[in-house]
Amino acid sequence: MNLFKKDTNENKSQADLLYEAQQRKQSLFRRNVILSWVSLLIFLIFLFSGIEIKSGDGVTSISSWKFQIVTENDREVRKRVEDTLFSLPSGLPGNGLDFKTITVDREFIKENIDFVSGGILQTIRISILAILLATLLALLAALGRLSTNPFIYALSTFYVSLIRGTPLYLQIFFFFLALPQLGIVLTGLWAGVLALGLNYGAYMSETFRAGLGSVGKGQREAAIALGMTPGQTMRRIVLPQALRFAIPPMGNDFISMTKDSALVSATGFVHELMWRAQKVGRAEFRNMEALVMAAIFYWIMTLLLTSVQNQLETRLAKGDR
Amino acid sequence: MTAIVKISNLDKYFGRLQVLKNISLEIQPREVVCLIGRSGSGKSTLLRCINFLEEPSHGTIEVDGVQVESSGKGKEHRQLIHDVRLKTGMVFQEFNLFPHLSVLDNVIEGPVTVKGMDSNQAIALAEENLDSVGLLFKKDEYPNRLSGGQKQRVAIARALTMQPRVMLFDEPTSALDPELIGEVLNVMKKVAKDGMTMLVVTHEMGFAREVADRVLVMGEGEIIEDANPQDLFNNPKDPRTKALIDRYRIGEQ
Q1: Is there a contact between A271 and A294 (Cβ–Cβ < 8 Å)?
Q2: Would you tell me how many other CB atoms lie within 10 Å of the CB of residue A183?
Q3: Cβ contact (<8 Å) for B114 and A225?
Q4: Dist CA B90 CA A244 (whole Å)
Q5: Separation CA A273–CA B12 (nearest Å)
Q6: Comparing A9-13, A18-22, A73-77, A243-247, which segment has the lowest mean pLDDT?
């Protein structure tokens, strides 16, 4: 029976069949991961939906709150918009189920979404400038770490130690508030870019160093035996391989930096996402709505960055498997 | 006939340990020389000194008329070392193919980057050499898709495409599964037959006996025996050589 079946698949070897089974298993796994993601997302949206479920007298009612207002005497007054969405008879005993999810003020979000999202561009600008600076510094510091010149080696380790040994928050304020005492006045944006770039450059230099260390000695020897100069060996053989190794942790650093750009809002002069969210949130005491909005924008940005990172990884992994 | 490789009074220290002791050696053009000996006897170090992957402590290396003193320094010295490297091709125990480049790119990397060869010309030369090691059909694959034997054959093609005068082999079959050794040795025989000067560090006594014009035996940093294979295998003079050959005979039975 089995043999007969094999004959009908005469073009397919056993390896092909095994491979297909493996592929099916993998695609099933991917599908289930996506389904689970969607369910978790739906649950999160539900948490913020303002739906109230009350059950009593054999009837379960589900209703939706549009918004809540806190008055001066701090008393919660709820305005019920859609009174009862629907009620359904239920076998649950009276007072069995009674809960309400988080209510967000949708009117407020509608009014302020344009203002908050106006900060996205500024956030992206800070992140890109800081990423460029950090990558350059990280590469220099990592190469300095390989140098046989004691001064260059010391310079690189000194930089990494100093910057990693102090808080990013402090560095931002140092560039923004302390440098003017020396007559150097930076705008909030440039203070932020400099601090973020210096900070992440120091962390990423370790990533690069690990990448450079991952390229075996034999690779350098093969290049040298072919007659390559140290510069050619580094550019053509070592760096491309080191980069492939360093891409996943670099992506991590980029994502992390994009979010840390929120700290620049503390200068009060850079109107990026976080600054705008805080401003409108405080003005109308709608901090939750404002922060949730900003959180969604940050999340979308990091999702995009992650997908870019994944594509780069696949492209660079050509010789890997 | 003038020697193509000439090593005079070569010493090499690793820290305080002397691994090469006053070695002098000449290799004639088109000669195939096998270097055997127990591990730790200094045979790989000797080979690696020839193209300056190891810096000799004392002595002189001359390859095809380019003479380098170990005491040399500065830009001129580096240029001489570079010239020597262009005249020698090296094949490593661990293949050391570049994993981020396809087979063809591995082979043309040297000629294009180092010699500045026109890429069409380099590709033609590379394809010729890949064909001669029997792997032209793998030219677009990446090294990780090749077996160990195939990797080593590509590595040989890569070294040949630099058009060296001398080929250095550093235990080219020691990292291979036994069933893959034959294909690499066959390629090496072919290279020898084409008239290449070869210095081969190896544990393959069969290959040494069959292909080598001369076999050098190393022990404790010195060349303890230098003879043609017939004499060496039938009538070893040094007891250390005898021990090596006896072990090979036992393995053969």
Answers
A1: no
A2: 6
A3: no
A4: 27
A5: 64
A6: A73-77
List chain B residues with CB under 8 Å of A226. 85, 109-110, 113-114, 158-159, 162
Q: pLDDT band for A88, please (50, 70, 90 cuts).
A: low
Report d(CA A302, CA A280) in Å as an integer.
23
pTM of the model: 0.75
| Residue spans of beta strands (DSSP E) within B28-177 | 32-37, 58-63, 66-69, 88-91, 166-170
Question: What confidence category does residue A76 fall into, taking pLDDT thresholds of 50, 70 and 90?
Answer: very low
* CB-based contact A293:A116 (threshold 8 Å): yes
| Distance separating alpha carbons of residues B172 and B152, to the nearest angstrom | 7
Please state the ipTM of this predicted complex: 0.92
pLDDT in tens, A8-19: 556 678 888 888
CB contact under 8 A, B98 and A219: yes
Q: Which residue of B has its CA nearest to A317?
A: B100
A64 exposure class (CB count in 10 Å sphere: 0-12, 13-18, 19+):
middle
A18 token code pair:
């095994």
Q: Quick count: other Cβ atoms within 10 Å of Cβ A160?
A: 22
Segment B17-42 mean pLDDT: 92
Q: Which residues of A are less than 8 Å from B142 in CB distance?
A: 318-319
Q: In this complex, is the C-beta atom of B114 within 8 Å of any C-beta atom belonging to chain A? A: yes
Confidence of residue A188 (pLDDT cuts 50, 70, 90): confident
